[in-house]
Design goal:
mainly beta; Alpha-Beta Plaits; SH3 type barrels; 2 domains; about 15% helix; elongated; zinc; metal ion binding; Asp_carbamoylTrfase_reg
Amino acid sequence: MKIDDVKNGIVLDHITAGKVMEVYEALELDKLNCSIAILKNVRSTKMGRKDILKIDNDFDVDLDVLGYLDPNITVCIIKDGKIVEKKQMQLPETIVNVEKCKNPRCITSVEKNLDQIFYLANRSKRIYRCKYCDSKIERSK
């Protein structure tokens, strides 16, 4: 299989196997007008299996969304066919408008223009809580 190299863009590497479409949808990559390669279940010595996204376009990727979805992701910024920067994701301290509060009594259920803000309550268990009502959301590993 031949996948072209990215000349100027981003490679999202070390995505947990099976999560590439979740990342694709969360970043709204379908709205980009460029080549995007989705590689699923690629062999990896480090992870066993992994997914990879290659985006042949410069765009502002939301690192908080990536860190929330999968803190194992490595973001490689490519310029002129060379990696110029590598970023290792981690769980963000807060996420804004990534999840919606499930509590029907939360102010965000009534006030439609209010940002959905969650803070990291427990890093090891990947638990976030709503800033307004303290409802819990848990991210599976």
